[in-house]
UniProtKB/TrEMBL annotation:
Protein family: Belongs to the FlgI family.
Matches recorded under InterPro entries: Flag_FlgI
GO annotation terms (biological process): bacterial-type flagellum-dependent cell motility
One of the record's GO molecular function terms: structural molecule activity
Electron transport in keyword set: no
Chief location bin: other
Primary role: Assembles around the rod to form the L-ring and probably protects the motor/basal body from shearing forces during rotation.
Source organism of this protein record: Tanticharoenia sakaeratensis NBRC 103193
Region (Disordered), start-end ranges: 298-323
Stated name of the protein: Flagellar P-ring protein
Length: 378
């Protein structure tokens, strides 16, 4: 006969079980294989970065700057900057012999929703004949967009993940010393207005256009949020956000899981011998045979010594070995209609086919019309 449980103990056990059930109910479920979030495969209209560019000077180089006699624009820029700072050397420009200054192009990306005062990274690249930007400092450089307006100002010490050493008869260089970065080197001065919350219609663009994937996105949105999504084309899904909070709705849509569809495609890089094949690649009935005629010739000359106490001379006797391989042990394999990627790889591996030979086989199968996929050669 079981012993009775006192009421305080019963309540404590009940609280523990309730806590365990709540923990299991709020724990995230494991992601299903192959599923991705919608925000990972799409981009929202208007939410984009803008490219900025500027021209400036880098100073403080250890003799690796531009030669002013060759880079006329560097000399003129240096003279103009010194004149603005109150140093008049216009009449003595021929005496400028510094090698510690370099003209550079400064580039950056202005992220979406950047506000005045935010900092962004910049990339600095030599525009003249400077050999290295290591150790330099970028002076104040306005960064403009395509409309000609200044959106940020860059300045700061350069960080170059490279080095260059030179001796009398040798030189070593790692990476590119004429390119450097300035982390958080630019301050945003002008904002690009975009009121996302006030939009009633938005377009979501697929990074990999596919009509099946776009349709699945619209169906997932309709199931979770409502019938607000319409597929315009394989790349675009239109959202009708009338009467809804655009920001919260987009946040909810972005976390929805979707199984993207991938086209049947084979990508071949002949330079490196790399082959990439999608899972939906199918092969019609085809017979494959692979064999090569290999002729190997090797020379192994032998030395012939004269007998003792003879008047002979040491000579070299030629010895030639010739081997011929016809690939007779290679057999023809038959791939039945509807063969998948695994069947194709298994069959070619059974023939002992290497990547280089596999490239020519795939190209031949495609020419025969048996490869039911798009073949792209790079």
């Amino acid at each position: 006969m079981p012993l009775p449980i006192p009421p305080p103990v019963r309540r404590k056990v009940g609280n523990i079980l309730a806590a365990v059930l709540i923990a299991f109910s709020v724990a995230p479920l494991p992601a299903r294989a192959g599923y991705v979030r919608i925000k990972d495969i799409t981009e929202t209209e208007g939410v984009r970065a803008n490219q900025l560019i500027g021209y400036g000077l880098v100073v403080g180089l250890n003799g690796t700057g531009d030669r002013l006699t060759n880079s006329i624009f560097t000399r003129e820029t240096l003279i103009s900057m010194l004149n603005r700072l109150g140093v008049n050397i216009r009449n003595e420009e021929t005496q400028l012999q510094t090698h510690d200054v370099a003209a550079v192009m400064v580039t950056a990306d202005l992220p979406a929703f950047s506000h005045s005062g935010n900092r962004i990274d910049v990339t600095v690249s030599a525009a003249g004949d400077s050999s290295s930007l290591l150790g330099g400092t970028l002076l104040v450089t306005p960064l403009m967009a395509a409309d000609g307006e200044v959106y940020a100002v860059a300045q700061g010490a350069l960080a170059a993940n490279s080095f260059s050493a030179r001796g009398a008869a040798a030189e070593v260089t790692r990476n590119v010393p004429t390119t450097a970065h300035v982390a958080n080197g630019a301050i945003v001065e002008r904002e690009i207005p975009f009121d996302l919350g006030a939009r009633t219609h938005l377009h979501m663009s697929l990074r990999n256009p596919d009509l099946t994937t776009a349709t699945r996105i619209a169906a997932a949105i309709a199931q979770a949020v409502g019938p607000i999504a319409t597929v315009d084309d394989p790349r675009t899904v239109e959202l009708d956000l009338t009467g809804r909070d655009a920001v919260s709705t987009l946040a909810r849509i972005g976390d929805l899981p979707i199984l993207p569809d991938t086209p049947a495609k084979v990508v071949i890089d002949e330079a490196s011998g790399t082959i990439i094949m999608g899972a939906d690649v199918h092969i019609s009935t085809v017979a494959v045979a692979q064999g090569n005629l290999t002729v190997q010739v090797s020379e192994s000359p032998e030395v012939s010594q004269p007998g003792p106490l003879s008047n002979g001379q040491t000579t070299s006797v030629p010895r030639t070995n010739i081997g011929v391989t016809t690939g007779a042990n290679r057999r023809m394999a038959v791939l039945r209609g509807g063969a998948t990627l695994r069947d194709l790889v298994t069959g070619l591996n059974a023939l002992g086919v290497g990547p280089r030979d596999m490239i020519s086989i795939l190209q031949t199968i495609k020419a025969d019309g048996a490869l039911q996929a798009d073949l792209e050669t790079r």
